[in-house]
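Reopening this ticket.

The earlier resolution said the output was attached, but the attachment link was broken on my side. Pasting everything inline this time so it's all in one place.
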Amino acid sequence: MQKKRYVCNTKDIDMNTTNARKLTSIRLNSNLYEHLNRLAKKDNRSFNNYVETLLSYASDFSEPNEETRIAIEDSRKERKSAPRFTDIDSLITSLEK
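Inline output:
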């Protein structure tokens, strides 16, 4: 039977970002832990950052940062006043002006 390793952040971390961190603990197979740790070091990342990144990619999770959120909001505001086109010909005519 392989020994299980516990992976745990030491505390909730804010790091002056808008993304709140949640403290969690998981059990990993020792060999898997060592494998992931080697890959994290090879990628010059902390173990936690490496695992979090893998989980984000594997689950198609994405959360825009504050700058992107502001840009999305600005775009939505501008979109309300933008002209609407019902066909390609009116779009092309508008672009040729």
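Reporter confirms the inline version is readable. Helices lie at 30-42, 47-58, 66-81, 88-96. Residues 8-17 have pLDDT under 50 and may be disordered.
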